[in-house]
Structures are given as C-alpha cells and as structure tokens.
Specification:
With about 210 residues, the protein is of the alpha/beta class. About 50% of the residues lie in helices and about 15% in strands. A 6-stranded parallel sheet has the order 5-4-1-6-7-8, sandwiched between helices. Strands 2-3 form a two-stranded antiparallel ribbon. Strand 6, helix 7 and strand 7 form a beta-alpha-beta unit.
Length: about 210
C-alpha cells in the first residue's frame, strides 16, 4: 500500500528550465569563456551541481564555479522561475487523500526552499532531502532511502516522481515505484527508456493513479 509520494523539484514541480540555463550560461561564459549548447546543459539536469561543474572546470575549479552559479541563480529566481500548472491543486488533492509528501532534490536547501516559496508549495511537504542532506546523490538510491528512513516507511510503500533519468534510476535502485513526467525539459525518449512504472503528461494525472 502506497503511503508516501516523493518528488524531484526542478522540472517536476517547478519550471526552472530558463533559470538553470540562464545561470549555467552565465557561469560558463563569465568564468570559463565557454559556450555550452543548450541540449548539452539539459542532459545534465538532475545531476548534482558539483559534478556538472567538474566536467567543465575540473576538480580545481568546480567548487568556485558552484559558488558563482548559486550566487547568480539565487538572485535570478524571481525573474526566471515559473509555476507548473496544476501543481498546487495536485499536491492539495494528494494531501487530502492522506499521503505523506516529500521533496528529494539535488539542489541546495536555500535555493530549493526559495523556489518552493516563490511557487507557494513548501507547506505541502512532510520531508525534505536536499543535496546537502546526504553525501551520496542521485542516481544512487541514498536520497530516497534517507526520506524513507525519516518517514519510517518501506520502499514498497512509496513512490518517486521525477523528470530526469537520474530520478527514475534513483527510485528504482531504492526499490520504490517510479513515475516519469512527460513535460520533462530533459528529453522524453531518454526518460521513457528508463521504464518508469507510470508515465504522466500532466501532474494532475497523479490523482488518477493514487
């Protein structure tokens, strides 16, 4: 019996695509003089930020680039972050049905909470797992397993909803049910290839499944 529904944040509950692209491009151009193709950036969505920056700046510059990215990203939230239609109504419906709700994201706590506050969804959740909550990140199962431990639940009692291959693989490795979202900014075919248990085109469809 499903008792908890866990969510990725960016691309799943909030539309941060423009924000991420804007911040990433700024850092690459300003500090590395690089022009990274948009599709290449999108392919990294869901991967921990430090690992992304390590690809372009190496270990010696990754931490600096992460700091610059976060600094620029935080001040750009209000101008570039968007709501995903139907999210608040869906979360409210799931809460009324009695599900525990959680966030499992690769974002740092400050930027993740800011995004949730701007989109007015923070109060729906019972558990939060941020990139600084755990030391082992997606696609490894630890972030989801951590949430389950905090909720006192078994893997078969939970679902993980996400928009990237890292999300679905993380959920599968943790042994929970998985849901892929068709409005992903990452790539539908890549996400479908991970074979999530359920596929939705709109967030409201969760209310038909659970």
């Amino acid at each position: 019996m499903i008792k908890a529904i866990l969510f990725d944040l960016d691309g799943t509950l909030i539309d941060s695509t423009d924000l991420i692209l804007f911040s990433f491009n700024h850092v690459m151009k300003e500090y590395l003089n690089l022009d990274v193709p948009e599709q290449e950036i999108r392919s990294l969505f869901g991967k921990p930020l430090y690992s992304q920056m390590e690809i372009y700046g190496g270990k010696e510059r990754a931490r600096e680039l992460v700091e610059k990215y976060r600094e620029h990203n935080l001040i750009s939230h209000k101008d570039h972050l968007k709501e995903i239609p139907g999210v608040k109504e869906t979360l409210e419906g799931l809460k009324k049905k009695g599900y525990a709700l959680g966030i499992v994201t690769s974002k740092q706590e400050d930027s993740a909470r800011l995004g949730m506050q701007i989109c007015e969804i923070e109060d729906f959740f019972d558990i939060f797992v941020f990139s600084n909550t755990v030391t082992i990140h997606k696609p490894e199962p630890e972030p989801v397993l951590y949430a389950l431990r905090k909720l006192g639940l078994k893997p078969e009692e939970a679902v993980y909803v996400g928009d990237s291959t890292y999300d679905i693989i993380c959920g599968q490795r943790a042994g929970v049910e998985t849901v892929g979202v068709g409005y992903t900014p990452v790539g539908r075919e890549q996400l479908k290839a991970t074979n999530p248990d359920h596929w939705i085109e709109k967030i409201e469809e969760l209310l038909e499944i659970y």
